[in-house]
Amino acid sequence: MGPPAFEALISSQLVVGEGGEPYGFSPAGVEALEQGFAELTAGPHARAEVEAAVRWVVALQARLDSPSAAARLRDLVHGEPNAAPHLAALAVHAPGAIDGYRAFLEAEGRNSAVAAPSVPQRSERTEEGDGGFTSPLYTGGKKPTSPGPRRLRRGKLD
To answer: Which of 47, 103, 128, 140 suits 63 as a labelling partner, its CA being 20 to 30 A distant?
Structure first.
């Protein structure tokens, strides 16, 4: 199976966008996309066509700086009834590392609740003024201080 046919259809219907956007769709282009997407999502490779459409929506929004074109394409995809089950399947993510870790802990009979990393605890301020937080990098003593910003006067640094 080659690349999804909807990708070729989208790229053939792109025009210069409005309002300074690099890409957009003409009204005739939107009609062609609607008709083509309806036909393609009724075919045997509907899932690949829907995935291609979603990739184009993301690309138009994030990389190609064309949010209006992305919104039109998004509305087209969400408006197609044949695309709904494939969009739902894309929304369910595959189990990731955290899910595998939880399953491993549960299989061993341990608590599978994952806790957020701890934050430094407030400590009593010391005479040196350590800022009130403990740090593994702080070894005690005075913190180094900056001499402050330097100014350029008459060609010389103060």
So the answer is: 47
The model carries a pTM of 0.56
**Per-residue H/E/C for 28-50:** HHHHHHHHHHHHHHCCCCHHHHH
- The DSSP annotation for the chain comes to --S-HHHHHHHHHEEPPSTT-S-EE-HHHHHHHHHHHHHHHTSTTHHHHHHHHHHHHHIIIIIS--HHHHHHHHHHHHH-GGGHHHHHHHHSPPP-HHHHHHHHHHHTT---PPPPPPPPPB-PPPTT--TTB--TT--SSPPP-------EETTEE-
CB 33 within 8 A of CB 23: no
pLDDT per residue as tens digits for the range 3-61: 678 888 888 888 998 888 899 999 999 999 999 999 888 888 888 889 889 889 989 98
